[in-house]
Amino acid sequence: TLTRVALLFVMALVAFAARQTPASALSTGVVISQVYGGGGNTGATYTHDFIELHNRGAMDVDLTGWSVQFASATGTTWQVTPLTGTIAAGGYFLIQQAKGTGGTTSLPDPDAIGTSAMGAENFKIALVRNSTALTGACPNDPAIADFVGVGTANCFEGTVGAKLSNTTAALRKDQGCTETDDNAADFEALAPTPR
User: What is the mean pLDDT of the chain?
Assistant: First the structure.
């Protein structure tokens, strides 16, 4: 019947939407505040890719045992960068990633170093409360503290963030404090500003 067809269509849409959104909830603590994958590319100022975290909370957070994880826009393999150390209340935590062959300026001293070559335009980044590699294109893992998908990424919070470039990063609005669980609403593409 027509009603049954409509019901099946709605169920298919719900299943599709579920694949696009990783497990997460509005964070009052540490979030991903900036992602940049154009480091060392043609026209880039900075020599390295990077991920930046911001502590929106009122208490310091020990990140030991946590990780940031990178996958390509449609990838199912996650590259893990383990974290150690503390991010102060209101502070930032800079994670240096792969170096390109171009760029003229090194990053400020990073708080952690990884080796992920992130690609300039389209990718996915997860902040995870453990260092076990995620699985699948859009992981539904309760250990995910925050998630960002940009460009043609097939997984993201809310709506996918804008495609980036060699000269633009995705920066969380209001100095890293805006958090609505919608990547397009929470981030804007601007010149990279590692803190």
Answer: 90
